[in-house]
Amino acid sequence: MRVMKFGGSSVGTAERIQQVIRIVQGRAATVESVVVVVSAFGGVTDGLIAMSQRAASGDRSYSQELAALRDRHLAVATALGPRGDLPAILAHLGREFQDLADALQGISLIRELSKRTLDYIMSFGERLSAFIVASCAREALPGACYVDAREIIRTDRQFGAARVNLESSFANIRSRLGGTAAGAVVTGFIASTDQGETTTLGRGGSDYTAALVGAGVGADEIEIWTDVDGVMTADPRKVPQAFPIPRMTYMEALEMSHFGAKVIHPPTIAPALQRNIPLSIRNTFNPDAGGTVIVHESADHEHPIRGISSVDDVALFRVEGSGMVGVCGIASRLFGALAREGISLILISQGSSEHSICFAIAPQAATLAREAIELEFSLEMKAGIIDDIVVETDLAIVAIVGENMRRTPGIAGRLFGGLGRNGVNVNTIAQGSSEYNISLVVGKPDLSKALNAIHDEFFLSRTATLNLFLVGTGLIGTALLDQIRENLPRLRQDQGLDLRIMGVANSRSMRFSPDGIDPGEGKAIVDGSGEPADLRSFVSAMRRLNLNNSVFVDCTASEAVAGLYEEILESSIAIVTPNKRANSGSQAVYERLREVSRRRGGRFLYSTNVGAGLPILGTIAGMVQSGDRVLEVEAVLSGTLSFLFSEFMRGAAFSAVLGEAQRLGLTEPDPREDLNGQDVMRKLLIIVRECGYRMEPREVELEPLLPAECFDVDSVETFYRKLESHDGRFEELRETARREGKVLHVVATFAGGEARVALRTVGPEHTFHGLSRGDNIVRLTTDRYRASPLVIRGQGAGAQITAGHVLADIIRIGSH
């Protein structure tokens, strides 16, 4: 026999009930018999509660809601009911609604709503739903009949969440349903006492009804049909990358249900577990999906954890004091005081020092719990044996669940490592000796980030997501957007890495999108429809979003943007940038950024600061970390100046060469920025610091290419006129170099603790002599490379190259 339960979302409309009937009909053709359990139509139970409360308060508007509810059910029955049976069906429904109206009228008259009466009112939802489904299924399932669960399931008188008398209920179920062919349609959620009083089994009780029926008739499987494709690895509303779990154990399902998984009602699992009946979770609207099967043992060992659950709002209590150490009965008195007030504990944690006890409860009970504890320990608190009770709110519980955790070392390390890298602080930790779950308490603002970070950590084989916030849509920023668009399908397919652009800004405007911005449209969107740019607002909005795996990508050359790096890293947000400003400012800022990065877990990657895509900084870092010592540095670090002097050596006037380079887009819009030597100085300073030396910008000796009068003019046109007057001096330098068989280059050097940038002549014997125009070159003399210095050479500029290696740094963060 097969038991099939359909939730409220599955039976909310005529079309959905038709789908249910088709599913049941298909199952009835493959098994000996079927019993169907249904919930109330979607939203009906809440509506009945609201009507009852209005009636109890004397608000007569409940009658309009009752009329709408009646119309809804009659419309479904009219649309689906067999023509010959329709008058009898509608007559039965009319009697049920009259009984409901009479009950609400009684509540309105006496202005009182007891739990017993509310259970009776709520029972109409399932009674109406099950009768309609049974009546409308008779053509497809000739044996379909309506069964009121109040006739077979017996409970105590704890109205609202009654406890089932299993022995008598199972006997009734076997007697009534044991030989049923397809198929009885049973009301979920409701039951009755031995005296015939209507009771309910608590929210989600229809699942429990299905499990009781399945256990009572000895079903071969219990199917729970809902509106999702099974039990998910996490709540997909909070973790978009969540996916269905094909198979899990009863104990795993119990743990996940306790900590907030909404797919299955926790008591459902107990009857199935006791009778070893498989439970399957299926999707009414996607019946071909495999769903989740819950069994005694799971064969899935692919992932060390099975899923992640959360309780989204809790209050955390801390009872502590030096007088608690070694004293018997403290915990018993504490939890006894709470139990007497009917307060349920969600999580408990106690350190081995016995100095404190932590526990989490629903926040609505926080005031009552504090009063109960203070009353119980009033004498100890007056004597200072127990400190004032500490209550923290705005918190949430996250739990990871999985039987494989018992056999897999390092789970806790990975869990807290993933949270730490995303800057999520953990308030409290709890783990049972069974090792089925690790539970922890985090701030509610960090809940979504924590869930996504954990999911990425343990289910990375699917897809990891980086949330990018890009500032700067100039040449490099635009090239980066293009490269992300081109490479995104390959990254998803080959590396399981998804890049979502959540925000874009430039000097004019900025734009955020919770669904991500298409990289192919990023620049156009921000230019066309963004709000006015405000750098601090952009960073504040990024921090408020508080997304896991956030990466701030700075493709500007702005000092103002670089000035916000420390604040960004303090939020555990990674930074990727070709912007040299932060690393070439003061030594104190350089060191502080690295300290914050280490402490807060936000990575700081800047491989494109020097040489664009050339492996300069990474090579130096590897050498230094492995114990090598850099003794001397000699480098040509400006692709623009390399091009200028290579062309200049061919014979044209220096001002003409510069003008042509500007027309080709090889210089900054204001070429004075290329000629003042600041760019080369910054790059040399970064290299020196990466070699492990401390140096301030003022300590770098910078020999100017031109006198100050050329730079202190009000326009680029005036600059060119001034420059022409110096063409003669450059001509003299060129002729001198030619006579000696040498070439001119702006060379950056570091040796003996001194750094210098100057225009030099280099001969044929020098490594730099044959340098191609536009190339960079770095020569490193180290302890290991003393006899034959290490040379790194290649194109060291260009938007496409720089953007490509910015993207490589982003991917490196995803791989990390």
Quick recap:
This protein has 816 residues and is α/β, with parallel strands linked by helices. The protein is 42% helix and 21% strand.
Structure description:
- With 816 residues, the protein is of the alpha/beta class.
- It folds into 4 domains: 2-227, Acetylglutamate kinase-like (Carbamate kinase), CATH 3.40.1160; 307-409 and 426-446, VC0802-like (2-Layer Sandwich), CATH 3.30.2130; 464-606 and 804-815, Rossmann fold (3-Layer(aba) Sandwich); 617-797, Dihydrodipicolinate Reductase, domain 2 (2-Layer Sandwich), CATH 3.30.360.
- It is 42% helix and 21% strand.
- The protein has an 8-stranded mixed β-sheet, sandwiched between helices.
- A hairpin with a 7-residue loop joins strand 28 and strand 29 (790-795).
- Helix 2 (44-56) runs parallel beside helix 4, helix 3 (62-80) packs antiparallel against helix 4 (86-110) and helix 4 (86-110) packs antiparallel against helix 5 (115-136).
- The longest helix is centred in the N-terminal third of the chain and has 25 residues, at 86-110.
- It starts with a strand and ends with a helix.
